[in-house]
Amino acid sequence: MSAEKNPSTAANGGTNAAAEGSELIKFDNVTKRYGSNVVLDNLCFDVSPGKHVTLIGPSGSGKTTILRLLMTLVKPDEGTIKVAGEYLSHEERNGKLVPAGEKHSREVRKNIGMVFQQFNLFPNMKVLRNITEAPVHVLGLGKDEAEQRARELLEMVGLTDHIDKYPTQLSGGQQQRVAIARALAMRPQVLLLDEVTSALDPELVAGVLDVLRDIAHSTDITMLCVTHEMNFARDISDDVLMFDAGRVIESGAPEKIFTDPEHERTREFLSAVL
Amino acid sequence: MTDLTAGLWELLFKGVWVTVQLTVFSAALGAFVAFVVGVARTNRLWIVRFLSGLYMEIFRGTSALVLMFWMFFVLPVAFGWQLVPMWAAVLALGLSYGAYGSEIVRGALAAVAPAQQEAGIALSFSPWQRLVKIQLPQAWPEMVPPANNLLIELLKGTALVSVLGVGDITFGAALVRNALGESAPVYTIILVMYFILAFLLTRVMRAVERKAKAGIGQAPQKGQGVLRKLTIPRQADAPSSDLSKSAGGA
To answer: In this protein, which residues make up the domain named ABC transporter (chain A) (predicted)?
Structure first.
């Protein structure tokens, strides 16, 4: 990855060697079951570099599972996922596709950052160390460089004053902004956002969404976003995918989906949440 | 009280020092065993989990006293080398209290929110880094109070060594008793001695606990006296509810 200083443009490592096709993320016939419950059903979709894609749909429709698959927190039962041209939960060995080992997954995963619904900051580390720990010990960045980057990111999310606090001393909104900075500090090509405002008090939501809008508009990072904030989705998305029962039932530009959806199910869902 | 001469007092105080040494060395060995076995019981490989579980069951299920005898009397016959009584005792106490301690470690690790693991995975930490940087530091404050209990058990358990002729408090007391021909004063005195040692141990562990809690952003509680409990905590000190939720994880 390049070593640009500016956090806002540095978030995306630029064009990777990935470019065998144009897509950065590619789901190929992915099926995921929990017991007899099919969560994702032969799912195919891809995301081009720099695109912001929002996944909407009723709960249990498989949106979050997609993010968890990309984070290798769960493994697909069938099908393959490629990120930046590399298989994610598989690896090629002697020309055969076999389930990926921990090391392979970790390498491919370095392209991906994730922000969680419950923030999941490390309570045993102060804000600064939450952000610098992975860049230093996973990417092998120098301590000074990592701290410099962390300070720039904290400035971007407006939390410079809180650098020396423990996560428990911050509000939910502040914690989530630190979590965003922590994810960006790894300079991922893809940022996964898993209902990042759902656990926040209503008055704290706007601050977090503003930060994300800023990132979406000022960087070329690819975003995959699960959200119930439809206005936010409309603002930042290039594409919206409507999920139901483990399938994409409709996709398109946000103007189209939100104003003139084709599918009956989409209309029902939107009228319920808007 | 009966006339305890200076020489007899000296016997008891020497015994205190031996008891302290026994406790410290056994605790060090026990803590090492507890961490290794406790962490191994959360390993991904079933064979590692099985072997560590087997260790825990065997050493938890055998008497420390019998183990001590075994180390002292059977090992020399079986392997041809003789342990000094002191080290036979430390080995026996450390191995069996370590087995108890491993359950504390395992339980505290299990109490760390699974979401913390996921956050570690999302940042591409290796399994070892996740254990050392995320899980153990967060589990540590949970371990301290039950470890305090176990340490006090261990302190009192060191009295077993007197049967091997190690000169601890209890051994010293037996000598003094023989010299004086009286039981009541001697045993009362060493009862108090054990209590004082246990009390000091608890004070130390309280300090450790406060420091551990401060290390995960929970403000150290100063002055835990009765007065403090009767006063209403200031609102400003308490984190708002959505914070405590997140600290607990999803």
So the answer is: 25-270
- Segment B15-32 shows an average pLDDT of 96
Nearest to A71 among B121, B125, B242 (CB): B121
Q: What is the pLDDT of residues A131-160, one digit of tens each?
A: 999 999 999 999 999 999 999 999 999 999
Domain of residue A198 covers: 47-71+111-273
The minimum CA-CA distance between B54 and chain A, rounded to whole Å, is 28
Q: Give backbone dihedrals phi and psi of A11, rounded to 5 degrees, phi first.
A: -55, -35
Residue A192: closest CA among chain B residues belongs to which residue? Answer: B122
**pLDDT, position A94:** 82
Query: Is residue A202, in this structure, part of any structural domain at all?
Result: yes
**Which three-class secondary structure string do you get for A113-160?**
EEECCCCCCCCCCCHHHHHHHHHHHCCCCCHHHHHHHHHHHHHHCCCH
| Residues with Cβ within 8 Å of residue B72, at least 6 apart in sequence | B83, B85, B88, B164
Query: Which chain B residues are Cβ-neighbours of A73 within 8 angstroms?
Result: 118, 121
**Domain B6-221 adopts which CATH fold?**
MetI-like fold (1.10.3720)
Do A116 and B249 count as a contact with CB atoms less than 8 A apart?
Answer: no
Label residues B143-152 b or e (16+ Cβ within 10 Å = b): bbebbbebbb
For the four alpha carbons of B117, B119, B121 and B125, in that order, the dihedral sign comes to negative
Block residue for tokens 């940087």: B133
Task: Using alpha carbons, select from A7, A63, A67, A37 the residue that is nearest to residue A190.
Answer: A67
CB B168 within 8 A of CB B19: yes
Evaluate whether residue A66 is within a structural domain: yes
Please work out, in degrees rounded to the nearest 5, the angle formed at the alpha carbon of residue A221 by the alpha carbons of A148 and B115.
Answer: 75
Report yes or no: A73 and B121 within 8 Å, Cβ to Cβ: yes
Q: How far apart are CA B17 and CA B12, in angstroms?
A: 9
Site from A120, A163, A177 to mutate, B interface, most B CB atoms within 10 angstroms:
A120
ipTM of the complex: 0.84
Chain B residues touching A171 at Cβ < 8 A: 240, 242-243
**CATH number of the domain where residue A213 is located:** 3.40.50.300
Q: Is residue A248 part of a domain?
A: yes
The number of folded domains in chain A is 1
Q: Which amino acid makes up residue B164?
A: L
Instruction: Check CB contact under 8 Å for A199 and B127.
Output: no
- Within 8 A of A196 by CB-CB distance, chain B residues are none
For the beta carbon of residue B189, count every other beta carbon within 10 angstroms.
16
pTM of the model: 0.81
